[in-house]
Amino acid sequence: MACVLLFSRLFPLSHRLTRTSICLLSLFLSYLCYCALFPADAIMPKSGEPTPGCQRVLSDGAKRRLQKSLSCVLPLEARPSSVEASRPKADQRPSSTLHTVRNDTPSPPMGNLKFGNKKLPNAIIVGVKKGGTRAVLEFIRIHPDVRAAGTETHFFDRNYDRGLEWYRGLMPRTLEGQITMEKTPSYFVTKETPHRISAMSQNTKLIVVVRDPVTRAISDYTQTLSKTPDLPSFQELAFRNQCLGVVDTSWNAIRIGLYALHLENWLRYFPLAQIHFVSGERLITDPAGELARVQDFLGLKRIVTDKHFYFNRTKGFPCLKKPESSSLPRCLGKSKGRTHAQIDRDAIEQLRDFYRPYNVKFYEMVGHDFKWE
Predict the structure, then answer these.
(1) How far apart are CA 296 and CA 299, in angstroms?
(2) What are the phi and psi torsion angles at 371 (to 5°)?
(3) Residue 98 pLDDT more than 70?
(4) pLDDT tens per residue, range 259-303
(5) I need a surface site. Which of 15, 143, 289, 358 has the fewest CB within 10 A?
(6) Whose CA is closest to 231, among 251, 256, 216, 215?
């Protein structure tokens, strides 16, 4: 109305206008005043500027929320047509510049992304049972260039008829330069296994964890006894005639310890340089030293060192120090480091006499004295 009064002062003839004309004139003058006081660019956002509710995304993936909103809608003129979107821009800058994305656009689920390929193993821990194979696998798999199957596959001794593709499917995905491993301790004493692994790849590296065969047999018996409480005594199973010192080599716990006989079968298919022997005793007293030799054998950089271990006096076994992402150290399961069954001293001495010639032959074959006397 102020504009109308001003107009009437400037133009005296305005009193002749009708009431309807005055109303229309008032509306028109109000619109002109409104446009003068509030420019259009102060009200409507420029095309190309992100509207509230958008996110501004940096090239490194970091997101900075500008303002919360129920949706993110860009002006129509800011949306490229399908033709323009497919046409490369001559002055397009690298991805370091900012760009806008919709709030409701889902990110790709990282858990579903699959990296690497499943490959047949480059190295296999083939034995021996109750020698320390699980410890070697758990210790070596903390190396960033090693990926290992979590469970024993028993492919070459029980599931060979399933084929190599089935076996490959059990392996973890690995990247270029990483080693694929698995462990099945019964391979070392299975007659057909060396030939079958050689048929898969003659370049496969083999790891054998050996231990004093008498101590190993007692540990084997202790494990079986925990699952079968009514098991006959150790002496009944180990001897055909204990008075005469006749050992029953058909019992698996005794047969496994004849390392020299089993190794002869492996050397028909693999050179000795392709087989690495880990001392089960030194694995307890010096885990870092044994793992250093394993890493050398596999052609890996020595990353697993003494800083990764501490000795658990309760278990009588080394454990891995806690990783940064965990509040607890990593020790082997309850079945590892259990107290052995009490065995008659005379029976132990008889078994040592029995194994002595086999041990000496084994030392000569591998070129190392494990000092099991």
Answers:
(1) 5
(2) 55, 60
(3) no
(4) 999 999 999 999 999 999 999 999 999 999 999 999 999 999 999
(5) 15
(6) 251
Structure tokens at 295: 């890493």
Cβ 198 vs Cβ 270: under 8 Å: yes
Distance from C-alpha of 360 to C-alpha of 368, rounded to nearest angstrom: 10
Measured CA to CA, the distance from residue 86 to residue 89 in angstroms comes to 9
What pLDDT digit, counting tens, does each position of 204-255 carry?
A: 999 999 999 999 999 999 999 999 999 999 999 999 999 999 999 999 999 9
Chain CA centroid to CA 237, Å? 42
Which residue spans within 72-216 are E strands per DSSP? 99-101, 117-118, 123-127, 146-148, 173-174, 179-183, 205-210
* Burial class of residue 147 (count of CB atoms within 10 Å of its CB; 0-12, 13-18, 19+): buried
Give the C-alpha separation, 133 to 142, whole Å.
15
Burial class (CB in 10 A: 0-12, 13-18, 19+), 243: exposed
pLDDT of residue 323: 64
Greatest Cα-to-Cα distance within the chain, rounded to the nearest angstrom:
143
How many Cβ atoms from other residues are within 10 Å of residue 55's Cβ? Answer: 17
The per-residue pLDDT for 226 is 93
**pLDDT beyond 90 at 53:** no
When comparing pLDDT for 81 and 234, which is higher? 234
* Residue whose token pair is 């129509």: 76
Q: Cα-Cα-Cα-Cα dihedral of 81, 83, 86, 90, to 10°? A: -90
Amino acid at 348: I
Report the distance separating Cα 277 and Cα 259, nearest Å. Answer: 11
Geometric angle at alpha carbon 270, from 269 and 274, rounded to 5°: 170
Q: Which structure tokens are listed for 206?
A: 């083999």
